[in-house]
Amino acid sequence: MLGQPDSGRDTSPREDAIRLLARREYSRAELVERLAAKGHDAAVIDDCLDALAELGLQSDSRFAESFLRSRVARGQGPLKIRGELSRRGIDRATLEAAFAEAGDIDWFALACDSLARRFDGPGDSPRERARRDRFLASRGFDFEQLRHALDHAWNSTQDSL
Fold it and tell me: Among 104, 97, 112, 119, which residue's Cα sits nearest to residue 147?
């Protein structure tokens, strides 16, 4: 079809990978998946990604750190972020290193902030409180962070008024 790129047959895996990396960081596993979908050979993909990693153009640790920062900015909790990083092919050691690098994150305050942005108050009925519980759980906060947020999310907004 006119106007649509070919399925990757006319470009090298290196060109395709660099084009992808120019937009945002990708994990190695994501690049392998995308380049394979374009029809490139698995051995050629591995060699290409090894060369890109050697040049510093692709880094799983840099991807993990960037991904962690972006998800924290969205108000997501540690459980969801860890799951997403694992799903994207980041190994446990790299994942733990990214969390250690960003060790100054106050997950309890982030849970409070996320909850206060979404809801006006703690809720009057058990059903409304359960809705707030589900919201924080779906955002990836653990039970302690969830309880803390439900107890303290609206204290800071009332103090600042």
Answer: 112
What would the pLDDT profile of 55-76 be if each residue is shown by its tens digit?
Answer: 999 999 999 999 999 999 999 9
Structure token digits, residue 17: 């990978």
Helices (H) and strands (E) in the chain, counts: 10, 0
The Cα 119–Cα 148 span in angstroms is 15
| Type of residue at 11 | T
Which of 28, 27, 47, 45 lies closest to 36, judged by CA?
45
- Tell me the CA distances in angstroms from 16 to 13, 19, 74, 86, one per residue in order: 5, 5, 29, 24
Q: Under a CB-based contact definition with an 8 Å cutoff, are residues 26 and 20 in contact?
A: yes
Q: 134: how many CB neighbours lie within 10 A of its CB?
A: 11
Whole-model pTM?
0.82
Under DSSP, the state recorded for 141 is -
